[in-house]
Design a protein that fits this description.
By secondary structure, the protein is an all-alpha fold. The chain has 2 helices and no strands. It is rod-shaped, with a radius of gyration of 24 Å.
Length: about 90
């Protein structure tokens, strides 16, 4: 999967997750309001905390992806420096 398609999927999932949080909290509240107001508020908070946890997991996956890209860049640079130092023995004196 190339980077552009990954970012599109990530943006879609993040938007869908926020919609899930807001609409889901409203639906949970409306369902439980018939039982009791305190129960409706409590279950809505539980739902929101669980949904936000899943949203944070999604952000964590994205951060790991960005970290992997950066490590790959650094590895490539280090390999270039290593190959240059092997070709030029004067650099190895330091």
């Amino acid at each position: 999967m190339n980077e552009n398609s990954f970012l599109r999927v990530y943006a879609f999932l993040k938007g869908a997750s926020w919609a899930f949080v807001s609409i889901g909290a409203l639906l949970v509240f409306k369902f439980f309001i018939s039982f009791d107001l305190i129960l409706a508020v409590f279950t809505s908070f539980v739902f929101v905390f669980f949904a936000l946890f899943l949203l944070f997991v999604l952000d964590g996956i994205y951060l790991r992806y960005e970290q992997l890209k950066e490590v790959k860049k650094q590895t490539k640079l280090l390999e270039e420096i290593s190959s240059q130092s092997q070709q030029n023995p004067e650099i190895n004196q330091f």
